[in-house]
Amino acid sequence: MKNIVVILAALSGIGFLTSARLPESGPLPAVRPGKSNTTTSAPARPPIPEQKPESGKPETPPVKEDSPNSSAIPEKQGPKLPSQQTLEEQHLTIAAESDAEHSECVKELQSLGVVFKDISRIDDGNGCGIDKPIKVSEVLPGVKIKPDAVFRCPVALALAHWMKESVIPAARIAAPDQGNILAINQASSYICRLRNGAETGKVSEHARGNAIDVASFSFEKGKDIAVKPRREDSTLIGAFQRTVSAAGCLFFTTVLDPESDAAHETHFHLDVLERKGGYRYCH
Fold it and tell me: Biased composition, Basic and acidic residues: where in the chain (predicted)?
């Protein structure tokens, strides 16, 4: 009888074990090396790895235009092209000139024999004007400028040195039978306009009193020597023009001659625009 009870109890324990369920989560049995666990199922919802940004840095969340922080990311705008500007749009001001520098320049003009006079400050609006203008009637003793030219003192000083050290010596070699140079005939000094007289673009250096256009040279004898295209001119006059054009870059920061473009076929454009690093543009 005892043996039967023991057997029944053992059978009841086996039935209980077979009907019991394992918990849904819990430690999984370790997999032996070299064998795969084919009976164990993976977790129902495996974690999804976060995607890294391509740049390796966290991305900046976009800012809406109407957001209070919309100014945190400024809108990128391309530079305004010169051709879209007018004198009114450029909001220019007349550059102030140092009293000491102007006084020193005037002393140098006087030592060279330049005939000039100080005139009242010019302000034509829109950035056109000269703080300390002068009117020049003779660039050197006996060499007139026709008509009288108005510009800043540094232009007159560069013009006097160019004439004395380059133009006059070259003319004596190229045109010895024509005598001395009596006059420079200028096409433009101070004038309020854009570059090359265009309707749009940047303001001209003429409008700042920094430039002079030279059209021709008058001599004691013979015809004037006009500034015109002479690239293929193999005469001494052609050599004279090319020589004084090249030498102009020793005294001016910008030299444009008839070989530069169609806008300068009839004159030299000479100016004293200051550029970074002392850069000069001569063509």
Answer: 51-67
In the chain, % helix, strand, coil (3-state, to 5) comes to: 35, 20, 45
The whole-angstrom separation of Cα 118 and Cα 94 is 17
Residue holding tokens 């209070």?
A: 68
Task: State the DSSP code for 203.
Answer: B
Question: Residue 218's beta-bridge partner residues?
Answer: 183
pTM: 0.68
Alpha-carbon distance values, 263 to 86, 213, 248, 258, 269 (Å): 19, 12, 18, 8, 10
Distance CA 235, CA 237 (A): 5
In sign, the C-alpha dihedral spanning 148, 151, 157, 160 is negative
Q: What is the chain's pLDDT, residue by residue, as a tens digit (283 residues)?
A: 444 444 444 444 444 444 444 444 444 444 444 444 444 444 445 454 454 444 444 443 433 333 333 333 333 333 333 333 455 555 578 999 999 999 999 999 999 999 999 999 999 988 899 999 999 999 999 999 999 999 999 999 999 999 999 999 999 999 999 999 999 999 999 999 888 766 666 889 999 999 999 999 999 999 999 999 998 899 999 999 999 999 999 999 999 999 999 989 999 999 999 999 999 999 8
Q: Distance (Å, rounded) from C-alpha 180 to C-alpha 141? A: 12
Q: Which two tokens stand for residue 168?
A: 């006059």
The C-alpha atoms of residue 207 and residue 193 are separated, in whole angstroms, by 6
Amino acid at 206: H
Q: Give burial (CB, 10 Å; 0-12/13-18/19+) of 143.
A: buried
